């Protein structure tokens, strides 16, 4: 317990840093994922192409490489922002590709007749998607979206290698102070466990309330 009690502020700062990264990146991932999922099922070919390229590139790019591209590449084009913002962009964009595919799979579970009936009533694509398809699809995508955001929380550990304050990065300071590396990692693991269990609990509540009964 000495590692934790004697470095409570250090662990707390790292824990809050990971929580902030997870929350902001999750919001960005959900927004971008929703937009790209809409593009993927849009009747306009150019929008489908944009969505396909977005998903294909990001899903097949290592997250560490994406961090390098964002944190080291964007400043070369004159975009200078705090490293934490760059980390949120990298995590959010990367995860949005997986959110997109989860949403698209949910959209595909909605019977085609539902959309056809909506269009026969004169509803536009936007109205059909927003009022008929997505509300039904949402119920079936709660578990996969929750799993994706849990993965995002764990992926945030990469940000520590780019001077971003987060939980895993605390081990460097603790190691320099001479604390046991094993117990340092034990308490880091406990911190990640708390975050992932919190996300899991939130999505369990959502699933019990709105999920599809099996």
Automatic annotation (TrEMBL):
It comes from the Bacteria. It is a multi-pass membrane protein. It is found in: Cell membrane. Keywords: Amino-acid transport, Cell membrane, Membrane, Transmembrane, Transmembrane helix, Transport. Residues 15-203 form the ABC transmembrane type-1 domain. The chain crosses the membrane at residues 21-41, 53-74, 80-100, 181-206. The keyword Protein transport does not apply. The keyword Translocase does not apply. This is Amino acid ABC transporter permease. It comes from Streptomyces argenteolus.
């Amino acid at each position: 317990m000495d590692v934790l009690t004697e470095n409570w502020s250090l662990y707390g700062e790292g824990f809050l840093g990971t929580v902030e990264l997870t929350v902001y990146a999750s919001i960005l991932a959900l927004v971008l994922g929703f937009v790209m999922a809409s593009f993927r099922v849009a009747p306009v070919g150019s929008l489908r192409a944009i969505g396909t390229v977005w998903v294909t590139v990001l899903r097949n790019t290592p997250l560490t490489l994406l961090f390098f591209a964002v944190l080291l590449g964007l400043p070369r084009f004159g975009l200078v922002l705090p490293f934490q913002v760059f980390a949120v962009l990298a995590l959010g964009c990367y995860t949005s590709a997986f959110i997109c595919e989860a949403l698209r799979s949910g959209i595909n579970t909605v019977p085609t007749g539902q959309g056809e009936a909506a269009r026969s009533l004169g509803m536009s694509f936007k109205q059909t998607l927003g009022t008929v398809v997505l509300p039904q699809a949402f119920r079936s995508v709660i578990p996969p979206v929750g799993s994706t955001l849990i993965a995002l929380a764990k992926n945030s550990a990469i940000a520590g290698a780019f001077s971003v304050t987060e939980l895993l990065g605390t081990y460097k300071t603790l190691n320099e102070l001479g604390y046991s590396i094993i117990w340092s990692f034990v308490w880091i693991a406990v911190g990640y466990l708390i975050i992932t269990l919190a996300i899991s609990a939130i999505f369990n509540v959502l699933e019990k309330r709105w999920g599809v009964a099996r």
